[in-house]
Amino acid sequence: MKSQFKKADASGALYALVFGEEESSRGMVTVKSLRDGVGAQVERPLDTIAQWSGTLQSAC
Fold first, then answer.
1. Dist. CA 1–CA 10, nearest whole Å
2. Which pTM value belongs to this model?
3. Which CATH superfamily is domain 2-48 in?
4. In this structure, is the dihedral angle defined by the CA atoms of residues 60, 1, 39 and 46, taken in order, positive or negative?
């Protein structure tokens, strides 16, 4: 997964969304910041993606 994060970082993406097996089994997605200098990450409910995805766009 490390190489996938490197590719996302090189693309200029602000965030990486992780849809891993563990997250999927719980109905969650991990949102990892690529530009905050820390790599902070939070889990969000997948079924409410339409609600919280707008907050990612407004954070740009």
1. 14
2. 0.74
3. Anticodon-binding domain (3.40.50.800)
4. positive
